[in-house]
Amino acid sequence: MKRHLISAADLTRDDAVLILDTAEEMARVADRPIKKLPTLRGRTVVNLFYEDSTRTRISFEAAAKRLSADVINFSAKGSSVSKGESLKDTALTLEAMGADAVVIRHPDSGAPHRLATSGWIGGSVLNAGDGTHEHPTQALLDAFTMRRRFTGSGGGSGSPGGGTGRDLSGRHITIVGDILHSRVARSNVHLLSTLGAEVTLVAPPTLVPVGVGSWPCEVTYDLDSVLAKSDAVMMLRVQRERMKDAFFPTEREYARRYGLDGERMSRMPAHALVMHPGPMNRGMEITAEVADSPRCTAVEQVTNGVSIRMAALYLLLGGSEPAVSPRPDTPRTEENDR
Ligand code: NCD
Q1: What keywords is this UniProt entry annotated with (predicted)?
Q2: Domain 136-300 falls under CATH 3.40.50.1370
Q3: Is the CB of 281 inside a 6 Å radius of any atom of ligand 1?
Q4: How many whole angstroms from 6 Cα to the centroid of ligand 1?
């Protein structure tokens, strides 16, 4: 593993499988009476958020706390950033406070890379979403959710219908919607293809990024043509806050052509999942009926996000001992570690 997690495109298959397997151990901790591990006791994790976030920020916070790290939450609103402080000066301040890891969300693509390579800070940098570039932990939690569902539980065992169960080989994953502005789509295309899945992107021509031809995926404008072959259909939010122009005629027209409703869902295979990273625009890319159906994994994705972020923090901050005791009778919890 590298010291930073900036891009899903940097992960080898072995890296990705190691994170997924470690997350599986972390998920087992959540079933114990004492959910906390002492692994990162005395380490400091800073959540540096320059953009709004609900799920990702609280998920990183929960993950760091479950590993016993000290957590500092920094949001640009209400800080000296609104007085014009630069990323460099903010980073130097965090370094002076002894941050071992900085989790950064930033509206500019490339900000986490800058932080990791600038020399301003000595700890690990984790990208929690940068502009329209990447969101690697979201892709990891999505892959984790698929692997668990396809193998019928914790992964690692054989999977029905192909693959080893440790990766997603032979699976068809369809990603639908505002691909142009989506860091979730970009990270997923890279990670899912590294894990052996075949990815198809579906979007109106105006929301397909330039250069998509070099991505490891297929592209179509016709959602109905791919539903029957999909093992999972991932719906994306239309990101109005990033749109300066009109990209489609009306919301109604968008929903009619690219929205997932009950009728379309009924044309997916019986085992196929509906996924959404949240936040959802109900009535736009997804109807309430689909969002609330048992096939939609949106809430499960949030739960799995904590396990993935625990795994990422544990692996990046250099846990040399096993994160979780192999013997279930003596878990390395805070209590028996004293
Ligand atoms: C996504 C994001 O922020 O990129 N959400 C998330 O992290 N759960 C997707 C979105 O905002 O639509």
Answers
A1: Pyrimidine biosynthesis, Transferase
A2: yes
A3: no
A4: 16
pTM of the model: 0.92
- The contacts of residue 229 (CB under 8 Å, 6+ apart) are 172, 269
C-alpha 155: how far from its chain's center? 18
Residue 184 CA: nearest ligand 1 atom is 4
How confident is the model over 70-99, as pLDDT tens digits? Answer: 999 988 877 777 777 889 999 999 999 999
CB 133 within 8 A of CB 151: no
* 278 ligand 1 Cβ < 6 A: yes
Query: pLDDT digit string (tens) for 240-269?
Result: 888 877 888 888 999 999 999 999 999 999
Does residue 147 have its Cβ closer than 6 Å to ligand 1?
Answer: no
Superfamily of domain 8-134+302-317: Aspartate/ornithine carbamoyltransferase (3.40.50.1370)
HSE, CB side, 13 Å, CA atoms: give it for residue 206.
10
* Domain boundary assignment for the chain: 8-134+302-317, 136-300
Same fold, 8-134+302-317 and 136-300: yes
